[in-house]
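Input record, target 12 of the design panel.
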């Protein structure tokens, strides 16, 4: 009896198709895996993208002949702190305070935490941080040292509407850096260490363009859109030295500082046409050039007249008044202002509460700043949209050597 032979196995067509698809899928995954593995192991032939420029590790020397934060490019963010000495703080207390704050500032500006810093990681990116000290008349009196005759509140001006919350102060700290978080941490650290000696009188934060937005050295714009500070002396020049640094006396190597909070009526400015805006300043809004022609840094021709015989740069314009053309005099200051923009009061119809923290440095306050301010007070079309609401004067002592403290050459 013959036993039938087993029937050879022949997979069905559907099975073959299914197997083929699965095999192809497995091959595809394998090939992709090989390709991915090779890509991970072999360097890419594509050019590597350039790393973004970082500003966090940039530092500005703290010690030196002059304090930093004056002949230093103005960074993007700043906070100005106005402090009043507590009643019980005597001369020795003032000196202890300055030693403590000097040590804090010297560390923080170099990317190192202050001794009592509870968030030391926050100090690791100084971002060109500077801390500048200014003395008010109250500090000089408490330290039992005679203040310079010019270290006093500015005279009353007709355009002023000063508010106590932005005026005066015994000690001023200007904290500035390219990063607002750095500024915030440094300001808080300084205030924490100063609170046993002082009370906060005012805090004024301000801003400029972020780093990398414009080329270094570009003149800032204020919130009216105007280029602000075109006439400034060049940093590091002999011209700057003449305009800013005091040459003789206890404050030699230092300077005088005026800080004024100027409210700007942006809503009213919106209603003025471009011609009125440019006539108020005497400059073009787009380029900052004088209306007499040229570019931002061209010398203004105050003799030039229009076809109707009127001065192209009007006698009421901010530029003409600041330059003292019609009085036959000319003074210079060094401007280092910041913009501010905060929420308008509740219920207000205004879009913003904005303006400028105006800051100027000059070697001779009475001979440089005051004549300019008196002319602007008497006649300046820009006054229609600006109102000073805060004002203070500070004496900026010279810088200090490592191991010393800011103000010792003045107070001891």
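The sequence produced for target 12 reads:
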């Amino acid at each position: 009896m013959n036993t039938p032979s087993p029937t050879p196995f022949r997979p069905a067509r559907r099975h073959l198709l299914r197997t083929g698809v699965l095999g192809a899928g497995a091959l595809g995954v394998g090939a992709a895996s090989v390709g991915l593995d090779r890509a991970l192991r072999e360097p890419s032939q594509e050019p590597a993208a350039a790393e973004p420029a970082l500003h966090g590790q940039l530092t500005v020397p703290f010690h030196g002949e002059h304090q930093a934060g004056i002949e230093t490019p103005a960074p993007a963010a700043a906070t100005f702190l106005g402090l009043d000495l507590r009643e019980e703080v005597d001369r020795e207390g003032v000196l202890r305070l300055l030693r403590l704050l000097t040590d804090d500032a010297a560390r923080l500006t170099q990317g190192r935490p202050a001794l009592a810093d509870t968030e030391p990681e926050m100090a690791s990116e100084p971002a060109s941080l500077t801390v500048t000290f200014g003395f008010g008349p109250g500090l000089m009196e408490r330290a039992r040292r005679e203040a310079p005759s010019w270290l006093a509140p500015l005279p009353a001006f007709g355009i002023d509407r000063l508010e106590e919350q932005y005026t005066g102060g015994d000690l001023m700290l200007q904290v500035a850096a390219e990063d607002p978080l750095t500024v915030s941490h440094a300001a808080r650290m300084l205030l924490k260490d100063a609170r046993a000696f002082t009370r906060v009188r005012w805090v004024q934060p301000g801003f400029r363009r972020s780093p990398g937005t414009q080329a270094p050295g570009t003149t800032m714009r204020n919130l009216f859109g105007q280029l602000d500070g075109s006439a400034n002396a060049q940093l590091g020049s002999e011209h700057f030295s003449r305009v800013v640094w005091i040459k003789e006396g206890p404050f030699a190597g230092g300077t005088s500082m005026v800080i004024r909070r100027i409210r700007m009526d942006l809503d009213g400015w919106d209603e003025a046409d471009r011609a009125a805006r440019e006539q108020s300043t005497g400059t073009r809004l787009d380029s900052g050039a004088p209306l007499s022609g040229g570019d931002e840094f061209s010398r203004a021709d105050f003799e030039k007249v229009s076809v109707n015989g009127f001065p192209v740069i009007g006698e009421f314009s901010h530029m003409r008044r600041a330059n003292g053309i019609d009085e036959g005099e000319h003074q210079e200051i060094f401007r280092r202002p910041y913009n501010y923009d905060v929420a308008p009061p509740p219920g207000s119809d205004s879009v913003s509460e904005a303006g400028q923290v105006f800051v100027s440095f000059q070697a001779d306050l009475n001979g440089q700043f005051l004549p300019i301010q008196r002319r602007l007070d008497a006649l300046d079309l820009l006054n229609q949209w600006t109102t000073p609401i805060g004002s203070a004067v500070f004496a900026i002592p010279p810088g200090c050597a490592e191991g010393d403290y800011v103000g010792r050459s003045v107070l001891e």
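Strands lie at 77-85, 130-135, 171-177, 198-207, 255-264, 334-335, 338-342, 353-362, 386-396.
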